[in-house]
Amino acid sequence: MPEEGVKLTKKPELLTTNEILTLSELFVKQGVNKIRLTGGEPTIHKDLLHIVESLKNISGLEQVAITTNGVTLTKQLVNLQRAGLDVLNISLDTLKSEKYERITRRKGWARVIAGIDLAIQLGYNPVKINVVAMRGFNDDEIIDFVEFTKDRPVDVRFIEYMPFTGNKWETQKMIPFSEMKSMIQAKYPNFSALPNNPNDTSKAYHVPGFKGQLGFITSMSEHFCGSCNRIRLMADGSLKVCLFGNSEISLRDALRNGCSEEDLLLMIGAAVKRKKKQHAGMMNLAQMPNRPMILIDCKMDTGRNHNLRKTGFNILNQYFLINSPLNSYSLPRFINRPHICQMSTSSKLTHVTAEGKVSMVDVGEKVNSERLAVASGKVYVGPKVTQLIKENMLKKGDVLTTAQLAGIIGAKKTSDLIPLCHNIFLSHLEVNCTLNEQDETVVITCSAKSTGKTGVEMEALTGVSVAALTVYDMCKAVTKAMVIREIILVKKSGGYRGDYDIDNSG
C-alpha cells in the first residue's frame, strides 16, 4: 500500500453487479471457460457471494477463481466454497509479520496464514500463493517460501517484479527467474521442473518429497505472450487485453449507452486483435503510463489486438473480420489519380426522377448478387501526432483502435447517415487503420460485402470517412493542422453495372 494511500473511484463509475454478470455471460458465450475475481480486494465487495454463485450458474463456465489478500478468509471462505468457488489464490509477499505490516500498513499476517491453513482443510489443492520477488525486500525469503511447501499442499508462485505507475519502478529490483532457480538449486540440488499445460503462465517446479510445489511467472525475463489467453475486465468496466498494456476500452460506457450485443462483440474483438506481441510495448518503460488493477482512478477507452487460444477467445475469428492486411491496395499509388472515375456510360443520376425530384432507387426488380466494395483514405497528422500515436500516448487513448471501431459502427449505420441509402445486411465488414510513419499519415481501408440487390460502395466509403473523422477528433487537442484526403473507392464488384477497379479505370 503506497504511503499516501490510493485514490478510489466513485461508486457510480464502477460496474454494478448486474453489469459484471451481464458481461461475464457474454464472454462465456464466446468461449471463455474460467473467470477469476481479483482486485483491488474482491472480498470487500458486498455482493461477492452472490456474484460467485451467479457465475457458477452460467452454462459453459467451468471454473470460478479468486485472488485475495487473504485477510478475511477465515470468516468468508466456508460460504464462498458453498457458493461454488473452485480455485483460491492468496497474495503474500513475505513470511515475516513485521515486514508484512510495513508494506501493507496494517496488521493481519497471522490471519492470512490462518486463511491458508483453512483453505487446505477445506480441500483446496493446491492453494496458490502469489509472491512478487523483489531484490532488497524479500530475496532473503525465497528459500523460506520453498520450505513453506514442505508440509503444505500449496503452490508458491514467484512473480517477477513488473513496472506500474506508482510502484517506483526500478530495474535493479527485478530478480529474474534464472537467478531464483539457481538460488534454490544451490540449497536443493534435486529441485526440478514439472510438466505445464499449453496456456499456463507459471513454470512449475518442485522439491522431491515436498507436499507442495513452486512456480515462476517470468513476465519480464521470459515473456509468455504467445500462449497467453488471459483478458482482464477492470472494476470500472475497462477491458485490458494485457496487464502490461496502457490501452483500455470501456465496456461499461458501451453497456450504459445501449450498445447492442453485436457491437459489444465488435469492440471486444478489435481490442483483442490489436495487442502487441510483447507486453504492449513494455520496452519503452520510461514513457509508458500504466495502472495496476488497484488504482481505478483514470478513464481510458482503448484496446489492442491479441490472439487468444481456445480457453479464451478463439471463437472471435468467426465474428470480427477486422484484422486483414491491406493486401494489394497500396494507397500511395492513388495520389495522382482523379477522384472521380467513370464506371459506366450512363449519364443519369439514379436518385433523381425525370421531374428532377429526389427519390430512393427502386431495387425490387433487381437480381440478388454478391456485392463487394473496398474504399480507402488518409489522414495527414504530422510528425508530433505520428509519434504520439506510435507510442500510444494520446490522452484520449488508442487512436487506431478507436477509429477502427468507429469505422465499423459507421459503416453499419450508413442508411441512417446518408439519405436515400437502402438499409442492407452486411455479410462481411473489415476496417483497417495503420500508421505510416514515413508519410506521417493514418491509412484507412474499409471492405464491405453483401448478397443483395444493391451495392455496398456507400458502406465502404462511410466506414473510411467516419474512421478518418475519429482520427481527427482523437488528435485535435494536439493540432488542428490535420488533413483528411483521398477518400476514394478502390474497387467494387457485383451488380448489373459491372465491376470496377481504380487500376483499370483509365
SSE blueprint and pairings:
Elements: H1 17-29, E1 34-37, H2 48-56, E2 63-68, H3 73-83, E3 87-91, H4 97-104, H5 109-121, E4 127-133, H6 142-148, E5 154-160, H7 177-187, E6 192-193, E7 203-206, E8 213-217, E9 232-233, E10 238-240, E11 249-250, H8 251-256, H9 261-272, E12 369-380, H10 382-391, H11 399-412, H12 414-417, E13 428-436, E14 441-452, H13 457-475, E15 483-493, E16 500-501
Parallel strand pairs: 1-2, 2-3, 3-4, 4-5, 5-8
Antiparallel strand pairs: 6-7, 7-8, 9-10, 10-11, 12-14, 12-15, 13-14, 15-16
Helix pairs in contact: 9-11, 11-13
What would the keywords be for this entry?
single chain; 506 residues; alpha/beta; eight-stranded mixed β-sheet; 27% helix
Order of helices and strands: HEHEHEHHEHEHEEEEEEHHEHHHEEHEE
Q: Using DSSP, what is the number of strands?
A: 16
Strand content: 15-25%
Give the biggest beta sheet: 8 strands, mixed
Helix content: 25-40%
Describe this structure in words.
The chain has helices spanning 17-29, 48-56, 73-83, 97-104, 109-121, 142-148, 177-187, 251-256, 261-272, 382-391, 399-412, 414-417, 457-475; strands spanning 34-37, 63-68, 87-91, 127-133, 154-160, 192-193, 203-206, 213-217, 232-233, 238-240, 249-250, 369-380, 428-436, 441-452, 483-493, 500-501. Helix content is 27%, strand content 18%. It is built from 13 helices and 16 strands. A hairpin with a 6-residue loop joins β7 (203-206) and β8. By secondary structure, it is of the alpha/beta class. The longest helix is centred in the C-terminal third of the chain and has 19 residues, at 457-475.
